[in-house]
Amino acid sequence: MPEPIGFIVVSLVASEEEGGYASVCPELGIASQGETAEEAIANLRDATLVFLNTIEQLGQRERVFKERHIRIHSQEPTGASVKLRQPSQIASYLVAPITGPRHKSALARA
Q1: Which residue among 27, 99, 100, 110 is the one 20 to 30 A from 49 at the CA level?
Q2: DSSP letter string over 67-106?
């Protein structure tokens, strides 16, 4: 795997729905589901990584990150917090390495 040029942090939030759990990454607009909250978060993590790889391959990363106000951190963040709208929600976060060409406009000075 190539050396990362930076890292992003996105929220992964699961909510109980009828018959299981729905999960969403609000920053990227990605959703998934699972029978348990843990499965829903794991499925969402996988879907998010596939999405990130796809936008990189299509040359759309810079545009998507700019539109969604996603910062690329030059160093790996050590923690993050997720704001929940409902007490019944379960949250996690994903620190994803970003590879590919460097775009100075996307890199945050961290």
Answers
A1: 110
A2: HTTPPEESS--S------SSTT-EEEEEEEEE-SS--TTT
For the whole prediction, is pTM greater than 0.85?
no
Helix, strand, coil fractions of the chain, as percent rounded to 5: 25, 35, 40
CA atoms within 13 A of residue 72's CA, in its CB half-sphere: 22
For residue 68, give both structure tokens. 């969604």
Partnered with residue 96 across adjacent β-strands are 8
Question: What's the pLDDT tens digit per position in 52-61?
Answer: 999 999 999 9
Asked if pLDDT for residue 106 goes beyond 70, the answer is no
Cβ count within 10 A of residue 61: 23
More confident residue, 95 or 43: 43
Strand 20-25, strand 6-17: pairing: antiparallel
Rounded to 10 degrees, the C-alpha dihedral 71/74/79/85 comes to 0
CA angle in degrees (0–180, nearest 5) for 22-23-24: 130
